[in-house]
Input
Amino acid sequence: MLRRFFQLLAVLAPLGLFALALQPVQQRLYGGHATQGILLLLAALAVLALLEGLLFRYWILPGWSEKMAERLYAGSYLPEEDALAQLAERIEREKDAELMPQLVQLVHAQAWRLRGWLELARLQQEVLRDAPAALRTLEKAMQAVREPEDVALLMCRAAGLCEKSLQDEAAARSWRQRAAEQYPDTVYGRKAALLLR
Output
């Protein structure tokens, strides 16, 4: 909370300085020195634009891009900065099932992240060879993620898992039906509807 206050203060500080600079500008404009007033106003505007531009370029824009990357990629887009991606890669590389509880803990700690659930389900299927556990993970993920597009994607993944790994066509059809009916405006909902035809 205190950090946000200082961020807001830093963004508003140049505007405060500009407001202070307007007093001498007004004195010159109304005191018969219009040219000096206009030049001082232009200088104040240039300083304001420079300060706000620097703040935007080096502070606001990087923060926005980081948040946008987290939103679009469901986490850090650099794998070396993402503990979850690192651990998933290690489990896949070493085929070490003993590391799975650590991954489960990371996924549950960041339950809103689609990527974590997808990695967990994939590794349960590929490393543990436990398709039912992978399906249960996808079902838990549907309760945890926020975006309709993500839920529809998880339903389609569940359908694919039922179809290919569990040989359960009825369950696969049921998952696709749910995705198509509950999320018809999403990409995966429309894809599920097409596959049902």
